[in-house]
Amino acid sequence: MTKLAINHVNKTYADGTEALRDIRVHANEGEIVAILGGSGCGKTTLLRLVAGLDRPSSGAILVGGEPIEGTHKTISAVFQEPRLLPWLRVAANIEFGGQLLDTTERQRRAAALLERIGLAGYGGRWPRDLSGGQQQRVAIARALIGHPGVLLLDEPFSALDPFTRASLHQLVLGLWAELKPTILMVTHDVDEAVTLADRIVIMRPKPGRVHETMAVDLPRPRDRLASPFDLMKRRVMRSIDRSLAEDLPTSPKPLGPGGTSPWL
Amino acid sequence: MKPLAARPWLTGLIIPVVLGVTWELTVRTGVMTGRLMPPPSRLLDSAITLARSGELGLHVAATMTRIGLGFLFGAAAGTLMGVLTGASGLAMRLLDPSIQALRAIPSLAWVPLFILWLGIFETSKLALIAMGVFFPVYLGVLSAIQNVDRKLIEVGRVFGLSTTGIAIRITGPAVMPAWFAALRTGLGLGFMFVVAAELMGASEGLGYMLLDGQQMGRADTILVAMIVFALLGKACDSILVAISVPLLRWQDTVRARL
Ligand SMILES: Nc1ncnc2c1ncn2[C@@H]1O[C@H](COP(=O)(O)OP(=O)(O)OP(=O)(O)O)[C@@H](O)[C@H]1O
Ligand SMILES: [Mg+2]
């Protein structure tokens, strides 16, 4: 069942920048969809629209069949930076994500999540006293404490070293397996997309458009050293190469299998 | 004995102590009379005499009442106006230009008008002090609100906070450090203006002591008043800092880590 539907979304900023053109992305209940694209192709813009922090110029975004108007209680997010509130201690930062929970439940879940993200005993610390990777773990816990239906991830691992990144991938996958939120994540890392996603949406810039959507039919847990994984990565990279080759900014092309562009 | 380096605050005492001792010796040996610049021992004598007679206490109480009330009014008004203009674009466009225009008038230029309107007694003094406190607090609060990190506001929005919730749980704490800094600046100006207010005519207060000392040719009275002003100012500032420390412990600053 479709949990999240982004239908023909366009976004042009007030200064005339056309950031997104006719974006169509669907995510089923409990699915992980990765949006893959280079810098400036509108990934953050798209996530901000889904989060309700900004409005599309046209088109609609549906969650569970309902169009979203502003922020939505079932949608939660981890940003490109941890964005912890510096005046709240770590445990209180996690609890901040559970605005709708009653106090005891919120504290219970925060304690459980602290344990789950490997930071048991860190609840009383200030965010400033955590490493970048630890802060991002706290941000993930904060995003999940309210058991959101949709989790948005905006390159939350891009600033981290490969060791930390791999361990956070495992953390996210583990929590996803427990809570089964629909995840829409943004990345520019092919390896990350193939590791995590059920489907990969490749975007092209200027204006941001969907170039191709690919299913990742690899069983979980995924073996990053096995050849099917490499094969999938190669398919994705080939698609990226094609998108770069075809990147003539003004020539629209049919989008996705069987899809026709409205401009033709 | 510990070396000087182990107690860095001692270093700061070297110059005043050396100067004080030198001056004391100069006067004691009769090289100078010390009439216009009494030596430390005579200052101490005067201070003790003034304190014993209850005179000093009276002046301190009068000055502190003025500072306290003036600061309270000025800080409250500055904070309220800062919050109002910071929170509402309409209030900003409506009020800020007028406030900025008033700020362009040097505050002491108000003295004659205040006296004319409010009389020579307490009200005009409080108005002057409150005005001195108002502007730095207003500006500090307003600019702090305008500079709150948009990214943290977005966190509040994503996790479902209402506008009021964001104001209380994000903007409020985010503004706190700048608010305390503004209050400290305001307090400093408050002390400046209490002197001005008391010099413009008062029958009690440390400012009156200054004026009285001048008219009586008592340099020691003037100096005692000046020193007491310094001590009171420092004490009030320390109280503000002491209040702020537990509230700002989260800050990732050098001071917070001391
Ligand atoms: N508030 C804004 N006003 C005007 N233009 C904007 C605004 N925000 C983003 N843009 C423009 O929209 C385009 C897409 O930006 P966006 O931040 O969504 O890219 P991105 O894919 O997230 O890039 P990155 O990988 O570097 O984070 C860019 O050309 C950018 O300059
Ligand atoms: Mg981005």
Describe the structure.
The complex is a heterodimer of chains A (264) and B (258). By secondary structure, chain A is of the alpha/beta class. Chain A is 33% helix and 24% strand. Chain A contains seven helices and ten strands. Chain A has a six-stranded mixed sheet with strand order 6-7-8-3-9-10, with helices on both faces. In chain A, strands 2-1-4-5 form a four-stranded antiparallel sheet, with helices on one face. Chain A is globular. Mean pLDDT of chain A is 90; it is low at 258-264. Chain B is mainly α and 258 residues long. Chain B has one domain: Orthogonal Bundle (MetI-like fold). The mean pLDDT of chain B is 91. The interface between A and B is medium-sized, with 25 and 18 residues. The complex binds adenosine-5'-triphosphate and magnesium ion.
Give the structure's gist in a few sentences.
The complex is a heterodimer of chains A (264) and B (258). By secondary structure, chain A is α/β, with parallel strands linked by helices.
Name the helicity range of chain A: 25-40%
What structural class is derived from the secondary structure elements of chain A? alpha/beta
Quickly count the domains of chain B: 1
Shape annotation of chain A = globular
Number of helices of chain A: 7
Number of strands of chain A: 10
Quote the beta fraction of chain A.
15-25%
What shape does the CA trace of chain B take? globular
Structural class of chain B: mainly alpha
Tell me, rounded to a whole number, the average pLDDT of chain A.
90
